[in-house]
TrEMBL record:
GO terms for molecular function: DNA-binding transcription factor activity; transcription cis-regulatory region binding. Residues 21-69 form the HTH lacI-type domain. This is LacI family transcriptional regulator. It comes from the Bacteria. It comes from Streptomyces tuirus. Pfam families: LacI (PF00356), Peripla_BP_3 (PF13377). Residues 354-369 have a biased composition (Low complexity). SUPFAM superfamilies: lambda repressor-like DNA-binding domains, Periplasmic binding protein-like I. Residues 342-369 are annotated as: Disordered. Keywords: DNA-binding, Transcription, Transcription regulation.
Amino acid sequence: MLTSGPCLQPSTGTPRWPTFAERAGVSTSTVSRTLRGLSTVSPEVRARVEKAAREIDFAVSRQAASLVTGRTGTVAVMVPTLNAWFTGSALSSLAPLLRAAGLQLNVYEIPDLAERTAFFEHLPARRNADALLVFSFDLTDEETARLDDLGMPVIYVSAHVDGRPSVYVDDVAGALHGTRHLLNLGHRRIAFVTTEGASGFTFSSNERLLGYQQALTEAGVPLDDDLVVSTRPGSKRAAAEALGTLLSLREPPTAIFAEQDEVAVALIWNLRRTRIAVPERVSVLGFDDQPLADWFDLSTVAQSPSEMARLAGELALKLIDDSDGDQERHIVLPTHVIPRGSTAPVAARPAGDQSARAAEGQSAGSASE
């Protein structure tokens, strides 16, 4: 749990609110909004009120404020994992925003189906938060209905749910533009590598696959299920197996689009391990624009989880203060392709290359962790 600024209440014998307001240089209504922890108070004004509180010996009490306002002073976040670039970047943006608003952050990590089932059975956030942010989950209708019954704002992040507030990138458009980048370089045998995970954690993966398929269809390129394979993020062995499957095809791909940067980097590592030049023989494109994309000169489709989290946090604060606010608002962020050194125009394939690729596929598939 990440804590942030407390709410305040007057100690016995302290000055009345007008005196307090005069010392802070604000109105009594602003003092009231600050004591109630409302996000409409700017960080600069909140700091002045808290400074005045310390000077005249106001007592710090989040519990007392909760009794008065019916609020907990907490925003809950539901994430599939903490061990991911996306989550870390998002929470690093969200935490200071909430802290400036006088709220604390409570994170629920739900990495597998067992944890997920337990969460929806008990709903620990029911009495312990003023809002819930749901990151990157493809929820069932029953799970969505359970969250609707929480009686608090629920904001979906990196996923969109009809009729509910959501903040996300257009994954379909992002993958479509990424695939077009490869098509414009002359590639027609373009593979797509998805990531494996527990059922229900695949929202972005499904959307990106759809964008890839749409781009190929628009270009008149027949869809080939053999060019779509799955792997596990962070596993060189899994990446090697996926790559081996692709290179062993009768017509192997000349370009590979990985739905995450870390998967793309693992593919590049395995390609170079088997002496297949990137991008001269195989182009590789990622999705995210993580720091490692720049380090590995990886062409990628960029998104900003920090901006996504910031906008979701601001939306949560508005809905906490106004429960009748726009509950159906969708904020859609753009993506853009960043060409780097891992993609290039398709090269002419020399005679006998297919048999060589098959041998390379067997070699790639035998790579170890």
